[in-house]
Amino acid sequence: MPYDPRWADLFAQERAAIVQACGCRVSAVHHIGSTAVPGLAAKPIIDILAVLQEPEDGVLCIKPLGRLGYGFRCANGIDGRYYFTKGNPRSRHLHMYPSDHPEVGRHLRFRDYLRSDPDAAAAYADLKLRLAARFADDPLAYATAKDEFCARIDRLATGLHQGTE
Protein backbone atom coordinates (compact mmCIF):
# COMPACT_ATOMS: atom_id res chain seq x y z
CA MET A 1 0.00 0.00 0.00
CA PRO A 2 1.16 3.61 -0.37
CA TYR A 3 3.30 5.10 2.39
CA ASP A 4 1.29 6.09 5.45
CA PRO A 5 2.81 8.84 7.64
CA ARG A 6 1.04 7.29 10.66
CA TRP A 7 3.54 4.42 10.55
CA ALA A 8 6.13 6.57 12.33
CA ASP A 9 3.67 7.27 15.16
CA LEU A 10 2.68 3.60 15.40
CA PHE A 11 6.36 2.70 15.70
CA ALA A 12 6.89 5.33 18.43
CA GLN A 13 4.00 3.86 20.44
CA GLU A 14 5.40 0.33 20.08
CA ARG A 15 8.91 1.49 20.93
CA ALA A 16 7.70 3.05 24.19
CA ALA A 17 5.79 -0.10 25.14
CA ILE A 18 8.76 -2.37 24.31
CA VAL A 19 11.17 -0.23 26.32
CA GLN A 20 8.78 -0.22 29.26
CA ALA A 21 8.25 -3.99 29.05
CA CYS A 22 11.89 -4.98 28.59
CA GLY A 23 13.57 -2.19 30.54
CA CYS A 24 17.34 -2.18 30.62
CA ARG A 25 17.52 -5.44 28.67
CA VAL A 26 17.34 -3.45 25.41
CA SER A 27 19.83 -0.73 24.56
CA ALA A 28 18.05 0.58 21.45
CA VAL A 29 14.81 0.12 19.52
CA HIS A 30 14.78 1.06 15.81
CA HIS A 31 12.11 1.35 13.14
CA ILE A 32 13.31 -0.72 10.17
CA GLY A 33 11.87 -2.10 6.96
CA SER A 34 9.84 -0.34 4.32
CA THR A 35 7.48 1.41 6.75
CA ALA A 36 10.55 3.23 8.13
CA VAL A 37 11.32 4.88 4.79
CA PRO A 38 9.17 7.96 4.14
CA GLY A 39 7.39 7.73 0.80
CA LEU A 40 8.02 4.02 0.28
CA ALA A 41 5.10 1.71 -0.45
CA ALA A 42 4.93 -1.17 2.02
CA LYS A 43 2.88 -3.90 3.58
CA PRO A 44 1.25 -2.28 6.63
CA ILE A 45 3.47 -4.18 9.05
CA ILE A 46 5.75 -2.19 11.35
CA ASP A 47 9.18 -3.84 11.51
CA ILE A 48 11.04 -3.19 14.73
CA LEU A 49 14.65 -3.95 15.65
CA ALA A 50 15.49 -4.17 19.35
CA VAL A 51 19.14 -4.41 20.38
CA LEU A 52 19.75 -6.55 23.44
CA GLN A 53 22.21 -5.56 26.15
CA GLU A 54 23.28 -9.20 26.49
CA PRO A 55 22.46 -12.16 24.20
CA GLU A 56 20.66 -14.01 26.99
CA ASP A 57 18.38 -11.03 27.70
CA GLY A 58 16.13 -12.07 24.84
CA VAL A 59 14.78 -14.99 26.88
CA LEU A 60 13.90 -12.61 29.71
CA CYS A 61 11.86 -10.43 27.31
CA ILE A 62 9.55 -13.20 26.06
CA LYS A 63 6.96 -13.00 28.87
CA PRO A 64 6.82 -9.20 29.13
CA LEU A 65 6.43 -8.93 25.35
CA GLY A 66 3.75 -11.61 25.46
CA ARG A 67 1.75 -9.35 27.76
CA LEU A 68 1.90 -6.71 24.99
CA GLY A 69 0.47 -9.22 22.50
CA TYR A 70 3.74 -10.33 20.91
CA GLY A 71 3.96 -14.02 20.10
CA PHE A 72 7.45 -15.52 20.28
CA ARG A 73 8.43 -17.34 17.08
CA CYS A 74 11.93 -18.51 18.16
CA ALA A 75 14.80 -17.57 15.80
CA ASN A 76 12.68 -18.23 12.69
CA GLY A 77 15.69 -19.24 10.61
CA ILE A 78 18.25 -16.66 11.78
CA ASP A 79 20.66 -17.84 14.49
CA GLY A 80 20.88 -15.47 17.42
CA ARG A 81 17.57 -13.74 16.71
CA TYR A 82 14.52 -13.61 18.95
CA TYR A 83 11.58 -13.09 16.60
CA PHE A 84 8.09 -11.96 17.60
CA THR A 85 4.90 -11.13 15.74
CA LYS A 86 1.84 -9.20 16.85
CA GLY A 87 -1.67 -8.82 15.52
CA ASN A 88 -4.16 -10.83 13.52
CA PRO A 89 -3.60 -10.04 10.75
CA ARG A 90 0.01 -9.34 11.59
CA SER A 91 0.71 -5.68 12.19
CA ARG A 92 4.12 -5.86 13.89
CA HIS A 93 7.34 -7.83 13.49
CA LEU A 94 9.90 -7.54 16.28
CA HIS A 95 13.47 -8.71 15.66
CA MET A 96 15.71 -8.82 18.74
CA TYR A 97 19.45 -9.30 18.36
CA PRO A 98 22.56 -8.94 20.50
CA SER A 99 24.42 -5.73 19.64
CA ASP A 100 27.24 -7.56 17.83
CA HIS A 101 24.93 -9.54 15.53
CA PRO A 102 25.58 -8.73 11.84
CA GLU A 103 21.85 -8.32 11.14
CA VAL A 104 21.73 -5.19 13.31
CA GLY A 105 24.07 -3.26 11.04
CA ARG A 106 22.58 -4.73 7.87
CA HIS A 107 19.04 -3.63 8.73
CA LEU A 108 20.12 -0.13 9.75
CA ARG A 109 22.37 0.37 6.69
CA PHE A 110 19.59 -0.74 4.34
CA ARG A 111 17.04 1.59 5.94
CA ASP A 112 19.42 4.54 6.04
CA TYR A 113 20.52 4.05 2.44
CA LEU A 114 16.93 4.05 1.18
CA ARG A 115 16.14 7.10 3.31
CA SER A 116 19.08 8.97 1.78
CA ASP A 117 18.66 7.89 -1.86
CA PRO A 118 15.21 8.62 -3.31
CA ASP A 119 16.09 6.90 -6.60
CA ALA A 120 17.01 3.67 -4.81
CA ALA A 121 13.85 3.89 -2.71
CA ALA A 122 11.74 4.40 -5.85
CA ALA A 123 13.42 1.44 -7.57
CA TYR A 124 12.77 -0.70 -4.51
CA ALA A 125 9.12 0.37 -4.40
CA ASP A 126 8.72 -0.48 -8.09
CA LEU A 127 10.33 -3.89 -7.60
CA LYS A 128 8.14 -4.66 -4.58
CA LEU A 129 4.96 -3.74 -6.42
CA ARG A 130 5.87 -5.91 -9.42
CA LEU A 131 6.82 -8.84 -7.20
CA ALA A 132 3.70 -8.47 -5.06
CA ALA A 133 1.56 -8.85 -8.16
CA ARG A 134 3.64 -11.78 -9.41
CA PHE A 135 3.85 -13.65 -6.09
CA ALA A 136 0.55 -12.62 -4.47
CA ASP A 137 0.03 -16.09 -2.99
CA ASP A 138 3.66 -16.96 -2.23
CA PRO A 139 5.27 -14.70 0.40
CA LEU A 140 8.48 -16.77 0.47
CA ALA A 141 8.98 -16.41 -3.29
CA TYR A 142 8.26 -12.67 -2.96
CA ALA A 143 10.91 -12.29 -0.26
CA THR A 144 13.44 -14.41 -2.15
CA ALA A 145 12.91 -12.40 -5.33
CA LYS A 146 13.93 -9.22 -3.46
CA ASP A 147 17.22 -10.73 -2.22
CA GLU A 148 19.42 -9.64 -5.13
CA PHE A 149 18.25 -6.02 -4.95
CA CYS A 150 18.66 -5.96 -1.15
CA ALA A 151 22.15 -7.46 -1.36
CA ARG A 152 23.17 -4.80 -3.90
CA ILE A 153 21.89 -2.02 -1.64
CA ASP A 154 23.73 -3.55 1.31
CA ARG A 155 26.99 -3.61 -0.69
CA LEU A 156 26.51 0.04 -1.65
CA ALA A 157 25.61 1.04 1.91
CA THR A 158 28.52 -0.91 3.37
CA GLY A 159 30.89 0.82 0.96
CA LEU A 160 29.57 4.23 1.96
CA HIS A 161 29.80 3.35 5.65
CA GLN A 162 33.39 2.12 5.32
CA GLY A 163 34.32 5.27 3.44
CA THR A 164 33.32 7.40 6.47
CA GLU A 165 35.44 5.56 9.02
Describe the structure.
This protein has helices at 6-22, 57-67, 102-116, 118-134, 139-163; strands spanning 26-32, 46-52, 70-72, 82-86, 92-98. It is of the alpha+beta class and 165 residues long. The protein has one domain (6-163): Beta Polymerase, domain 2 (2-Layer Sandwich), CATH 3.30.460.10. Strands 1-2-5-4-3 form a 5-stranded mixed beta sheet, sandwiched between helices. A hairpin with a 5-residue loop joins β4 and β5 (92-98). α3 crosses α4 and α4 (118-134) packs antiparallel against α5 (139-163).
Keywords:
Beta Polymerase, domain 2, 52% helix, alpha+beta, 18% strand, five-stranded mixed sheet, single chain
Short description:
The chain is 52% helix and 18% strand.
Regions with pLDDT < 50 over 5+ consecutive residues? Answer: none
* Rg: 16 Å
Tell me the number of structural domains: 1
SSE topology string: HEEHEEEHHH
Number of helices: 5
Strand content: 15-25%
What's the shape? globular
Structural class: alpha+beta
Task: Please state how the strands of the largest beta sheet are arranged side by side.
Answer: 1-2-5-4-3
Assign the CATH architecture. 2-Layer Sandwich
User: What is the terminal-to-terminal distance?
Assistant: 37 Å
What is the CATH domain class? Answer: Alpha Beta
Q: What proportion of the residues is helical, as a percent range?
A: 40-55%
CATH topology, by name, is Beta Polymerase, domain 2
Sheet of most strands: 5 strands, mixed
